[in-house]
Write a structure and sequence with these properties.
The protein is mostly helical and 75 residues long. The protein contains six helices and no strands. The chain is globular and about 30 Å long. Pfam families: GerE (PF00196).
Length: 75
């Protein structure tokens, strides 16, 4: 089993509400700057949240994160 599959439930529960929002936003065709504007935070804040999400769900790319989110009903 891959890390994404074996730790899916644990990772979903470990994500904060804001991290789930950011993860859902990653599925849209928008830049980090646009996500930041939508969420009323700085681009650096979004970058930090994205890094945290990637670490918690065990991925390293945006496409992997989007696939993980879809597989776990976050969208």
């Amino acid at each position: 089993m891959s890390t994404m599959q074996s730790s899916g439930t644990i990772a979903t529960e470990a994500l904060t509400r804001r991290e789930r929002v950011v993860l859902a936003e990653l599925a849209e065709d928008v830049t980090l700057e646009e996500i930041a504007t939508r969420l009323f935070v700085t681009r650096n804040t979004v970058k930090s949240q994205v890094r945290s999400v990637y670490r918690k769900i065990g991925v390293s790319t945006r496409s992997e994160a989007v696939a993980w989110a879809e597989a776990h009903g976050i969208r």
